[in-house]
C-alpha cells in the first residue's frame, strides 16, 4: 500500500514538473516576426520593396535600414538604431556590402539570426576587399576606382549587365540613378567581432552574380557553416526574385524560433 502511494506521489510530481516545463517552454519560445533589411553598395533601401511586400503579407514586421554607406562604423550605427526599435527577437538580413554590416551589427542582443543575400561574410579582422581578391572579376563587373572624394561608383555602361541583368532596362536605369554614394574606405574596414560565430546564419548564393563571384559567396558560407540556398538570379536577386529571397528569410525566422 505504501509502495503504491509512493508511486502515485512520484507520478503526480513528474506530471506536475512536465506541465511546468511545457508551460515555461511555450511561454518563452517566441515566434520571430521582426525582420530588419540592410542594403549594400550602389543601392538604397527602395530595392527591398518586393521583399518587404512578400514578408508583410505573411504577417512579418519589416524595417528597411537606409545606411549612409560612409563607413562600416556609420552603417553599423544606423543598423543598430533600427534594431533598438524592434520589440523582440529579430532576423537581420543584408545584401552585398550589407553582409559586412550585419556581420558586425548582428551582435546586437535582439538579433536571433542572420541572412546573407549574395553578400560578403567576413571573419574577424577580414575585409570585403580581401574576399573580392580571391577570384577574378566577371567582364560585366563595372565597379570603378574611387574618385577624388574617395567615393566608388558603378560604371553606368555596365550597371545593367553587371549588377541587375535580370530586371528591366527601365528598372535598372532607376536603380543606377538612385544608388548611394559608397565610400571606398568601407571595402578596407575590418570586422572586429563576426556575429555569425555566435548566431545561426543563412546564405543566398545568386548563381548569375557578376558583381560578386558566386564561388566567393559559396566559399564564405561554407567556411562559416551557413545554411546555403542557391537562387538563379543576378547580384540584385533580392529585386528580381523577391519571393524566393523572402522565403529564405521566413525559413530563418521559423528555424530560429524552433517552429
Automatic annotation (TrEMBL):
The signal peptide annotation in the UniProt record is: 1-29
Determine the domain of life of the protein's source: Bacteria
Q: Where is the AB hydrolase-1 domain?
A: 35-247
Q: Name one Pfam family in it.
A: Abhydrolase_6
Keyword terms of this UniProt record: Hydrolase, Signal
Molecular functions (GO terms): hydrolase activity
Name this polypeptide is given: Alpha/beta hydrolase
- What is the scientific name of the source organism? Chitinophaga varians
Where is the organism placed in the taxonomic lineage, from the top?
Answer: Bacteria, Pseudomonadati, Bacteroidota, Chitinophagia, Chitinophagales
